[in-house]
Amino acid sequence: MASLIDIGLGGVFHAAIIFLVAAGLQLVFGVQKIINLACGSFYALGAYFGITAIAFANSMGMSPLLVLPALVLAGFIIGLVGIPIERVLRTVYRRDESFQLLLTFGLLLMFQDVFRFFWGPTPQTLNNAYLAYGTANIFGAQVPTYNLLVILASILIALGLGAILQRTRIGRIVRATAENRDMTEALGVDSKKVFAVVFTVGCMLGTIGGALVVPAGAASLEMAVELVVEAFAVVVIGGLGSMRGAVVGALIVGLIRAVAIIVFPEAEILSIYLVVIAVLILRPAGLFGKAAA
Q1: What is the tens place of the pLDDT at every residue in 179-211?
Q2: Which residues touch 284 (CB under 8 Å, ≥6 apart)?
Q3: Distance (Å, rounded) from C-alpha 53 to C-alpha 93?
Q4: Model-level pTM?
């Protein structure tokens, strides 16, 4: 029982992180119709900047109990890099998808050099920050309290994002722009501002996810590409443009990964690919995606 709980919560923790990145990817595609290959770079940027921010905060005497809110704040701040990047992406709006893929892939490669220049090729860690909150005993399983807090934070972010999109004026404008950009522009909506806000929020979701994961792992040059694979697996499984699909897809990928690591570590990535292939064969639009007309 303890082993099952440990595996399950480990999978849900990873799902909570992947969801944040995939939600940003879904939000950007849903409104701007851009498939952002650079989403993994935002994730890695949040991880690296989170480590730098915590190191600075510790030098100022910050309490270890403030690690989690400090990481969220660091991810939020560095996520503002989405504002200038969105202006670069404006050059490929309404153009063929190949231009979008090439530009965002170019950003992915550029960020790799940025990480290497500022933080070097060696993986960076937060040392003992992971156990700053201790552990919780759940039916005999010793689970790091930090994992539970990250899962809770991800749930709150998901609920907050859903509430904003469904119950606020800006949310209605964003949904209207996603449905029919030309009509909303005819009604006086400045789509450039909407796109800037949406892309920046999507970027922030990725950087916050990267910042939250570093206490449990390390920031490395490879993490951007690895995350892109998992994020797109979530999107394919859940359905492109579906937030509900991002939640379900992240849970499926996170739990499959957790089980594979215990049962057959060599098949960790293969197991995810097998699910993706099955979804593409049986339901090409994803579990919650809309089939193309």
Answers
A1: 888 888 888 888 889 999 999 999 999 999 999
A2: 291
A3: 34
A4: 0.91
